[in-house]
Design brief:
By secondary structure, the chain is α+β, with helices and mostly antiparallel strands. The chain folds into two domains: 2-152, 2-Layer Sandwich (Fructose-1,6-Bisphosphatase, Chain A, domain 1); 161-273, D-Maltodextrin-Binding Protein, domain 2 (3-Layer(aba) Sandwich). Helices cover 35% and strands 26% of the residues. The protein is built from eight helices and 14 strands. The protein has helices at residues 2-15, 21-38, 56-72, 102-106, 176-190, 202-210, 224-236, 265-272; strands at 45-49, 52-55, 77-80, 93-100, 113-120, 123-131, 136-141, 145-148, 151-152, 165-168, 195-197, 216-222, 240-242, 255-260. Strands 3-4-5-6-7-8-9 form a seven-stranded mixed beta sheet, sandwiched between helices. A hairpin with a 2-residue loop joins β1 (45-49) and β2 (52-55). α6 (202-210) packs parallel to α7. The mean pLDDT is 93.
């Protein structure tokens, strides 16, 4: 799989022309290789909360990603899940999830990602999501489009929920937020959607919406590093991303997320916005 990851890295790099793209791709590759070195091997794992874990693989991948970026851009801000907390709206900001899908990873499930977003003064410029276990790359840059392993991608064409496959995520909270999510899933099924998928890695869920494989995605609480790269992918693939009340997503605090194609978005928002729980800071 490392060879396939390397091959698709070259295809992806050829598609991006923004000045930071080379560094971002090398950083994503370094993080992906670190994760593959740990995958399905004995791990040291620490619980951060209920069903919320960090492993030595998270930390190794983050170190590899951050070091690559800091070697090239030592003055740039970094916001990452485990150890860096600069502001997302800095002049130059890298927003990183070194292992999205930690729970999948520690259970040996081959569905996890490295997610890197590069932002300038709060505006998304570059988004990269890798799937190390499959060797796949999703990349996008502002004004340049979105790509899967070097091939252009676009959001799907579903115009009604009855035509849609929807993805969702569950936050770690097992009380009100979980119940709101389950109730919304019931509402969506009553709209005769094709189905619900919950794969446990929001960065890949958003990438799949950008590729048109999912028609929509919602989750009631996500962190900036879950969303940053996927937001650029969605935009460049012709999609729409907002919070679950239709407001713009900001990346300096937790947020709800709803993503789909422009025609489906109002209908999906109508369903997911009815039950949105209050998100504490």
């Amino acid at each position: 799989m490392k060879e396939y990851l390397q091959s698709n890295k070259h295809k992806s790099r050829a598609r991006l022309r923004v000045p930071t793209a080379h560094v971002a791709i090398e950083a994503a590759h370094a993080g992906s290789m670190a994760l593959l070195d740990y995958f399905r091997k004995p791990l040291e794992v620490r619980a951060k909360g209920v069903a919320n874990y960090v492993s030595e693989a998270d930390l190794a991948a983050e170190s590899a990603v951050v070091q690559t970026i800091q070697d090239a851009f030592p003055t740039h801000a970094i916001l990452s899940e485990e150890s860096h907390s600069d502001r997302a709206d800095a002049e130059h900001s890298w927003i990183i999830d070194p292992l999205d899908g930690t729970n999948n990873f520690i259970h040996g499930i081959p569905h996890f990602a490295v997610s890197i977003g590069y932002y300038q003064s709060g505006q998304g410029v570059l988004g990269i999501v890798t799937s190390p276990a499959t060797g796949d790359w999703f990349v996008a840059a502002r004004g340049e489009g979105a790509w899967f392993n070097g091939q252009p991608i676009r959001v799907g064409s579903a115009q009604g929920l009855e035509q849609a496959m929807i993805a969702c995520g569950f936050y770690y909270d097992r009380d009100q937020m979980m119940q709101s999510t389950l109730d919304t899933i019931g509402d969506l099924f009553r709209c005769e959607i094709h189905g619900i998928r919950r794969f446990g890695a929001a960065a890949l869920d958003l990438a799949y919406v950008a590729a048109g494989w999912f028609d929509g995605f919602f989750e009631y609480r996500l962190s900036p590093w879950d969303v940053a790269a996927g937001a650029v992918l969605i935009q460049e693939a012709g999609g729409t991303l907002s919070d679950c009340q239709g407001n713009p997503v900001t990346l300096n605090r937790p947020t709800s997320v709803c993503a789909s194609n422009p025609k489906l978005h109002p209908k999906l928002l109508e369903m997911v916005g009815k039950r949105i729980p209050k998100i504490s800071e």
